[in-house]
Amino acid sequence: MKKPVQKSRIPEDKSFLIRELKAPFFDVNWHFHSEFQLFVVLKGKGTRFIGNHMSSFKEGDMVLTGPNLPHLWRNDQEYFQIDSKLETHGIVIYFPDHFLQNAVFELNEFSSIANMLYKSSRGLEVQGKTNREITQMMKELLKMEGVQSLIQLLTILEKIAQSEEYQIIADAAYTNTFKESEKDRMGLVYEFVMHRFNEKIALKEVADICNLSESAFSRYFKSRANQSFSDFLSSIRINHACKLLQNEQLNISQICYESGFFTLSNFNKQFREKIGKTPLEYRKEFVTSF
């Protein structure tokens, strides 16, 4: 049976931890932890969840998440097939919220890094030339030890801090209201939806997973995810449709049904509401950009 990549704790005698991840798929568990995390995808694609934000990810995706910000890089379903030959590859750095005994947050010399790390409480997506330079630096850091490795990490953080090539991911109003004990419950909901989003899903089915009534589950999910369950499900379906629209061999009707919509009119309506254009307009724009 395939095993996903699992997160390791930072050893007590280390100021940070860097790992190279190679596995059939990334960690399937929706989770959060007390460390900062810088993660770059070198190989693999799927759907990324950061706080209350969802988007596709592929090779080159780089995100810095602050402490206790829920996240998940969930590979596409094809990665989980028994006969799949697909692989994932990434590099992750963990460093604690009391990094360098809080010196980073207290000394003038680190003010730009401190400001950037505060912003990472909503997640930062690093793009462009900065992304490419830091990816190379992370590869180099894998081979470094001692003081040299710490200097390299600080240089990476300073490069992000001085760059204008990053975007904040989660909404300004987002706050993590989850308790540690709720990780498994929400993880099961995410896993269920990612397996079944292209089918008809009754609210009772998802509520039963959490051992809640339908009304209690609706209140619970909205209070934690800052959106209704139906909006969450619709976003996943639209995100999948966007991927399929990049394949010119599939017609719009096929994509509609394969994404979990049961009428073309509803698909077009929801797609326009979330993306700001029709599926056909989205496809034409994607094709002309390549």
Automatic annotation (TrEMBL):
Pfam families: Cupin_2, HTH_18
Segments forming domain HTH araC/xylS-type: 187-285
Alphabetized UniProt keyword annotations: DNA-binding, Transcription, Transcription regulation
Presence of keyword Signal: no
Family matches, as SUPFAM superfamilies: Homeodomain-like, RmlC-like cupins
GO MF annotation: an example: sequence-specific DNA binding
Keyword field contains Transcription regulation: yes
PROSITE patterns in UniProt: HTH_ARAC_FAMILY_1, HTH_ARAC_FAMILY_2
InterPro entries: Cupin_2, Homeodomain-like_sf, HTH_AraC, HTH_AraC-typ_CS, RmlC-like_jellyroll, RmlC_Cupin_sf
Residues in coiled coil: none
Superkingdom assignment: Bacteria
Name of this protein: Transcriptional regulator, AraC family
